[in-house]
Amino acid sequence: MTSALADQKVRQYKDQAGRLSETLPETASAYHQWTGECFASGELDAKTKHLIALAVAMYANNEVCTFYHMEEARSEGASDRQIMETAAVAAAAASGHVLSQGVVRVQGTLRPEAAGFAGIPAGGMQDYLQDTEFSADWDLNHEAPGAPGATHEVSPSY
Question: Based on the structure, what is the number of domains in the chain?
């Protein structure tokens, strides 16, 4: 059972979300249909989907969604232990995000030679550390784009 304050906040969200249909009926309907489909059991069961959403809500520091998805996960059969394991995984993933930035960007900038960044392609460390999801210029083998053996992957910024 959740606290009275958590229940009140979730109820307030649901009430206000319901009122959205007064102003934007098509938008509200499309959103509810889409999220309903997303959280329906499929390859992942509904409990797992709400545990994932709980982890995302905690990472985003969204109090109402944290309470909401905890309540929904419980209604789908999640135990207190499963909910707390979800919280631990969210904490590990969040701290892993910070660590990856620290060891790649910060340490790599401070000591590129020690971080294994010798031979960075033209453009230097600044281009290497750019914040892009995909880079046509980045190649794991340091080959020119389109060269035989070039392997373009997700940017090393992630």
Answer: 1
Start-to-end CA distance of the chain, whole Å, equals 38
Can you tell me the distance from the alpha carbon of 52 to that of 55, in angstroms, rounded to the nearest whole number? 5
Instruction: Tell which residue, 133, 135, 100, has the closest CA to residue 120.
Output: 135
Strand partners, 134: 154
121 touches 142 (CB < 8 A): yes
Q: Is residue 69 assigned to a domain? A: yes
Q: What single DSSP character describes residue 104?
A: I
| Residue 77, helix vs strand vs coil | coil
This prediction has a pTM of: 0.68
Dump pLDDT digits (tens) for 27-51.
Answer: 999 999 999 999 999 999 999 999 9
DSSP conformational letter for 24:
-
Helix (H) or strand (E) holding 41: none
